[in-house]
Amino acid sequence: MNKKASGFTLITAIFLLSVVAVLSVYMINARVVQQTTLVYSLQGARAMQAARAGIEWGIYQVFPPSPQLPSCLTTNPTFEATGAALDKFTIELDCTLSTHTEGTTLITTYQLTSTATTGVYGTLDYVYRSLEASVSEQPP
User: Nearest CA to 118 among 34, 39, 38?
Assistant: First the structure.
């Protein structure tokens, strides 16, 4: 064996080990980022559905199925969502009433705003979604 070439394989092996280590670290970081993004996306979708549930509950409260007159909520209710999918979401509902006349018809419009939140503001686990809906009714 030639003494001049005896250290070449050691340098090549160290270089290859370094490249493999750097690639491994990169792949692990990419996986962690991908998993975190997926979790945040799922939390955002859950928050959107919680806000939607708040809107639907508000419409049900404004237009009850019984023969009561429609009315806006007297207080802005805040409640915790239950069930596995929306667990730990706080939903706040706001209702604003307005009326206007078109020709001789009085039209009442209810502006509903539903806000769903979870986590503590300023932390990574905080999620906030808000939806608005306008529903109108006119007397027959």
Answer: 39
